[in-house]
């Protein structure tokens, strides 16, 4: 039962880490949410803003200025939290691989392998908290920005909603949390 739980947690941790990495690298954290007939689809991400022409499918992207340039707080905080979550999830995945019962590393000392799995669970828990905080921070800021414009009857022509990258970050963080619970609470 323990080996099956470890492999399940590993599979979930691997998938969740991939989701976190994709969310950090992709550029669709905010999408235009207008109900009118648009000729272009706009996405804003952590690293650039892209516009796709719906008629011919041509996509153009504008890179943000240097990482050291002044950016909105939501971008800086989300970048920091997501990159840290990615690094922690990768470290937890490497630790978990070495701690699996099916791996011959430290086969003669099962207590150390169990501690490695537990440590990987704790690290995954930290990664999930950071990733979820970053994704939720960005999502709440998008919502507040939109609500402020609506409450002041300001229409800029484009309203943004949560993009698939934001949802992918939330899903990856939730998966890391579930894998963390499996490794820290259910493994013993």
Automatic annotation (TrEMBL):
PROSITE patterns: CLAUDIN (PS01346)
The keyword ATP-binding is annotated on this UniProt entry: no
Primary location recorded for the protein, binned into one broad class: other
Protein name: Claudin
A GO term, aspect molecular function: structural molecule activity
Transmembrane segments: 118-140, 162-187
Cellular localisation: Cell junction, Tight junction; Cell membrane
Leader sequence residues: 1-28
Membrane topology, record value: Multi-pass membrane protein
GO CC terms, sorted: bicellular tight junction; plasma membrane
Family stated for the protein in its record: Belongs to the claudin family.
Role of this protein: Claudins function as major constituents of the tight junction complexes that regulate the permeability of epithelia.
Lineage: Eukaryota, Metazoa, Chordata, Craniata, Vertebrata
Naturally occurring in which organism (per UniProt): Sinosuthora webbiana
Pfam family, one: PMP22_Claudin
Keywords assigned by UniProt, alphabetized: Cell junction, Cell membrane, Membrane, Signal, Tight junction, Transmembrane, Transmembrane helix
